[in-house]
Design goal:
79% helix, 9 helices, 232 residues, mainly alpha
Length: 232
Amino acid sequence: MLGPFGYVIWFLGTLCEACVVVCALKRGVFRRYFLLNLFMAFSVVVDIGRYKILHSYGFLSPQYLYVYFFSDALLNIVLYLALSSLYAQVFSEMKVERYVRTCTLLLLMGTALFSYAVVQQATSRLVTRFVAELSQNIYFVGLVLTYILWGAILKLRETRTQLVQLVLSLGVYFSIHAASYALVNLYPQTDSFVASFVPVFGLILPLAWAYAFWRLPVEARLAPSRLAVIPR
């Protein structure tokens, strides 16, 4: 059951997500980072929907659990697609957007098939277990892809401050959630502890994105020496 602290974090998270969309609209970068803003807008809608279900049926009700797991899977798919849009931004000069989209869809399909293969032996709640497994695997795939993207940023000497901020914060977000799933899988008794504190760290992503859209101009550039140390 959620306590006062949980409700406060939930409210702050929803407020921060809405701030990301507002900042993007105010600064004129909503279309540039459409999928990122779509993810944040969808998160706000999901939070409101979850609260209504929670208020009507209770925290441990089947209705709330179904809504939670299915909406979480949809959010993760949208965030995964948003990550692919950052790939397109980084490699924009190479004109490889079509290849990025194709590889993104193929990898998502592969992740879904792997998730189904893991849970296909389940005799009950197959669909629920599938969406939960899919969300978990998307976090791990997203983590790997984000660090690969960061390596590409260093290799290509990408210096757009706003883009670097978005990628770094996304790497932190995926790292926290992937680590939380790994911790619960290894030590199931930590489930309640992880469920209490992961939402707190989840505030990092909307705060970092809101800051990037509001405070960092699109044309701002990092000094190459601040992005990576260049060996002599």
